[in-house]
Amino acid sequence: MPNGGPEIEQLIQLLARLPGLGPRSARRAVLHLIKRKEQLMIPLSAALDRAVAAVRTCEVCGNVDTASPCSICADPRRGESGILIVVEDVADLWALERAGVGNVRYHVLGGVLSPLDGIGPDDLHLDGLIERAPAYGEIVLAMNATVEGQTTAHYITDRLAGTGIKITRLAHGVPVGGELDYLDEGTLSQALKARTAL
Amino acid sequence: MPNGGPEIEQLIQLLARLPGLGPRSARRAVLHLIKRKEQLMIPLSAALDRAVAAVRTCEVCGNVDTASPCSICADPRRGESGILIVVEDVADLWALERAGVGNVRYHVLGGVLSPLDGIGPDDLHLDGLIERAPAYGEIVLAMNATVEGQTTAHYITDRLAGTGIKITRLAHGVPVGGELDYLDEGTLSQALKARTAL
């Protein structure tokens, strides 16, 4: 047992399964933890325990929170805008919240349609979306700009056809701070088509 | 609380303090954990608890293990070679063990001399080394090839002068798999000086 006993070895192996950490960086992380037992390792252990006990998935929107309905679904001001943003994943919801998009609500699909991976409409939280949609004035489809994301957006548009609900998608264009030279042709051509007056 | 409650926010902040993880990757890691609550989050929490309880620093060599003296110091075969390898850090000990250097023992200094950072001889585990050294036939100074590492090696050589113990250091040279073109001049010149017959 070169790396100091089975307890340490197991901790390394579990940490190595986190995204962004491999076996080598997990080993460094564990040493870092052991050296900072009081300041970091014990608080992290306690924080994990608390999160395991507290975290649940919102049964309305699919967000991850410590309450269900989550704080966004429970906040009446969030409903006033009448905007429901559909995202693939909780990470996308968090990203939009960090961007400060305002008083909106979300619906987390939990993935995208991907026939090659065997992921069909029944594997996503689509029924909940169809049920919630009529309560909102506008559905923003904020899927990733990938083939699967756009396929999923088309599918949802078809499902909501005839309901009269306004359906929009995020704008394509030049990322803020981005350089034209490094952009792909598709983005550039979309950015030109959607040009706005100054 | 955009990211789902104080428990989640705190877990993100603690994970972000690990080397190799920043705020963004810590957030991804926490979502990864939450999605794999049974398979990863709960086992990780338990592994941390066990490690917190079990891990201690070996009072002989400074290695991190679940026993003190550690498994290396307690293994009589490790003493037979008469070789004691001095390293800066436990990570270096682990690296040498992974390299399979054989039946050797170690001494972890816990750092290097660095006057600019206020780290002097009293801040390192040097007295223990001076005490242990006479029991070994050879002391290998395996400090990093940095200015501080080499300063520390010189200091140890001075402290052990007159004891008659053989003191060696790791070879400098071309890393296995390395390309000459990418090597610095110092390494290349050392590699040429230390060339070996084929």
Automatic annotation (TrEMBL), chains A, B:
Keywords: DNA damage, DNA recombination, DNA repair, Metal-binding, Zinc, Zinc-finger. One of its GO terms (biological process) is DNA recombination. Belongs to the RecR family. It comes from Devosia oryzisoli. Pfam families: RecR_C, RecR_HhH, RecR_ZnF, Toprim_4. The lineage of its organism: Bacteria, Pseudomonadati, Pseudomonadota, Alphaproteobacteria, Hyphomicrobiales. SUPFAM superfamilies: Recombination protein RecR. This is Recombination protein RecR. GO terms for molecular function: DNA binding; zinc ion binding. It comes from the Bacteria. CDD domains: TOPRIM_recR. May play a role in DNA repair. It seems to be involved in an RecBC-independent recombinational process of DNA repair. It may act with RecF and RecO. A zinc finger (C4-type) spans 58-73. Residues 82-175 form the Toprim domain. The keyword DNA repair applies.
